[in-house]
């Protein structure tokens, strides 16, 4: 996935928002927008867009950001009536592209930072899907900033006067960007957390530190904790402990394996500590657990 990373400050700013109503058979125009990004969100139907030779199908709930100074056009006519909102925006700052979002964690405040703002990044996926639960809020914000209506049914372009102040328009625009950022962040969190879970499941006998995980996945340790906790309800080290205890439960069904051997095989160098953690998790010692799972059930 390609991400567009905006270096801030300054923040990206709204130029104008609008809504377009296309009929079946209509096609997006061919054009280049100088110094202007075009963000498109489709509510119904589908748009077929091409940008610098890359083709996109943008369906309901999906979005596409077309960068400035690149040729974009429709490569195929709409196959159904299509409604979409669009936002033209710009930045006077720098921006870059990457295959993954830039993660930013603010450094701790200190006396040398009273008068200087750290650089941070807004990372937006160029193409993706917005969670359905956010569609109504997103539509409301986009409707509020719309000042242009392109109506292909009546072959007209309507312009509406401003109803709120410019600062309110910019605030709504930033709320819209926040929805895209939050949607992207949840996806990243799920991906990182799932990868860490798989890592622990395959390597539960090894020890891991937060710094090692942060280095491996190129995120700050605090971000790693937040991702895993959001998905699994526990910290990375608690997740590893849970996986180890579950594996130990499986191994305890084999009476030929000693508790010392099981403790070592699931990553504990201290058997006493293993027994303590096992009892804390299950409410019984490893031998008590083995006895229960080894006892045949009585016929009722």
UniProtKB/TrEMBL annotation:
<dbReference type="InterPro" id="IPR014710">
    <property type="entry name" value="RmlC-like_jellyroll"/>
</dbReference>
<protein>
    <submittedName>
        <fullName>AraC family transcriptional regulator</fullName>
    </submittedName>
</protein>
<dbReference type="InterPro" id="IPR037923">
    <property type="entry name" value="HTH-like"/>
</dbReference>
<dbReference type="GO" id="GO:0043565">
    <property type="term" value="F:sequence-specific DNA binding"/>
</dbReference>
<dbReference type="InterPro" id="IPR018060">
    <property type="entry name" value="HTH_AraC"/>
</dbReference>
<dbReference type="InterPro" id="IPR018062">
    <property type="entry name" value="HTH_AraC-typ_CS"/>
</dbReference>
<dbReference type="Pfam" id="PF02311">
    <property type="entry name" value="AraC_binding"/>
</dbReference>
<feature type="domain" description="HTH araC/xylS-type">
    <location>
        <begin position="194"/>
        <end position="292"/>
    </location>
</feature>
<dbReference type="Pfam" id="PF12833">
    <property type="entry name" value="HTH_18"/>
</dbReference>
<dbReference type="InterPro" id="IPR003313">
    <property type="entry name" value="AraC-bd"/>
</dbReference>
<keyword id="KW-0804">Transcription</keyword>
<dbReference type="InterPro" id="IPR020449">
    <property type="entry name" value="Tscrpt_reg_AraC-type_HTH"/>
</dbReference>
<dbReference type="InterPro" id="IPR009057">
    <property type="entry name" value="Homeodomain-like_sf"/>
</dbReference>
<keyword id="KW-0805">Transcription regulation</keyword>
<keyword id="KW-0238">DNA-binding</keyword>
<dbReference type="GO" id="GO:0003700">
    <property type="term" value="F:DNA-binding transcription factor activity"/>
</dbReference>
């Amino acid at each position: 996935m390609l991400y567009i990373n905006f270096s801030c400050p300054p923040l990206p700013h709204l130029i104008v928002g609008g809504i377009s109503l296309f009929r079946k058979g209509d096609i997006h125009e061919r054009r280049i927008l100088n110094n202007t990004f075009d963000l498109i969100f489709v509510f119904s139907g589908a748009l077929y867009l091409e940008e610098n030779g890359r083709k996109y199908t943008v369906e309901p709930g999906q979005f596409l950001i077309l960068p400035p100074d690149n040729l974009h056009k429709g490569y195929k006519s709409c196959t159904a009536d299509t409604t979409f909102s669009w936002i033209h925006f710009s930045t006077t700052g720098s921006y870059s592209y990457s295959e993954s979002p830039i993660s930013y964690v603010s450094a701790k405040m200190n006396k040398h930072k009273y008068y200087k703002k750290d650089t941070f990044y807004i990372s937006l996926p160029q193409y993706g899907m917005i969670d359905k639960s956010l569609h109504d809020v997103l539509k409301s914000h986009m409707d509020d900033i719309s000042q242009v209506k392109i109506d292909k049914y009546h072959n007209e372009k309507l312009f509406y006067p401003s109803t709120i102040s410019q600062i309110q328009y910019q605030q709504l625009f930033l709320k819209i960007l926040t929805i895209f950022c939050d949607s992207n962040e949840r996806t990243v969190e799920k991906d990182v957390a799932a990868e860490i879970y798989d890592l622990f499941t395959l390597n539960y006998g090894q020890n891991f530190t937060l710094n090692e995980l942060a280095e491996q996945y190129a995120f700050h340790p605090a971000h790693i904790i937040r991702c895993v906790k959001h998905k699994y309800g526990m910290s990375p080290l608690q997740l590893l402990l849970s996986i180890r205890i579950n594996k130990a439960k499986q191994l305890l069904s084999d009476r030929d394996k000693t508790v010392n051997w099981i403790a070592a095989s699931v990553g504990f160098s201290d058997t006493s500590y293993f027994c303590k953690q096992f009892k804390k998790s299950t409410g019984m010692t490893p031998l008590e657990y083995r006895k229960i799972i080894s006892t045949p059930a009585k016929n009722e």
